[in-house]
Amino acid sequence: MKKIRLSPKERALEKALVSGEYRPVSRSEFQGIADAIVRRKKDAVLNMRVNRQDLAGLKQKARRLGVPYQSFISELLHHFAA
After folding, report:
1. Cα–Cα distances in Å, from 36 out to 11, 14, 20, 27, 62?
2. Average pLDDT over residues 1-19
3. What pLDDT score does 28 carry?
4. CA separation for the pair 10, 8 (Å, rounded)
5. Three-state SS letters, 35-81
6. Domain spans of the chain?
């Protein structure tokens, strides 16, 4: 039988699963999560000009949070539009 090689991320997920970090959820909680994912689907394109220093600041904050800057900006827009 061929041995399967897991990536570091896959090994981390397997370790978390075995150690009990994940828990089962109810059907209603699962549906709530699935609905939230659908609502977050990005289906529109936005092109805009911004101040260079503002963009640099947003990129720096996104880097500190460890997220892509476009995702960070999208989350900011979502937060203020809701």
Report:
1. 27, 25, 24, 14, 22
2. 89
3. 93
4. 5
5. HHHHHCCCCCCCCCCCCHHHHHHHHHHHHHHCCCHHHHHHHHHHHHH
6. 8-81
Under a CB-based contact definition with an 8 Å cutoff, are residues 50 and 77 in contact? no
Distance CA 39, CA 70 (A): 18
Is residue 1's pLDDT more than 80?
no
Within 13 A of 11's CA, how many CA atoms are on the CB side? 5
Q: Which two tokens stand for residue 2?
A: 């061929």
The pLDDT value given to residue 4: 85
- Single-letter amino acid, residue 28: S
